[in-house]
Amino acid sequence: MKRFFKYVVSWLAAVITTTVLGVILQTQNIITRLEGVGADISVGERLSMTAYDVMRLGSLYGIFIALALIIAFLAGGLVFRFAKFGRPIIYVVAGAIAMLVMLFSMREVFFGVPLIGGARSGFGIAMQMLAGGVGGYVFARVSQAKEIEQ
Question: Could you tell me the sign of the dihedral formed by the alpha carbons of 83, 21, 10, 59, in that order?
Answer without folding.
Answer: negative
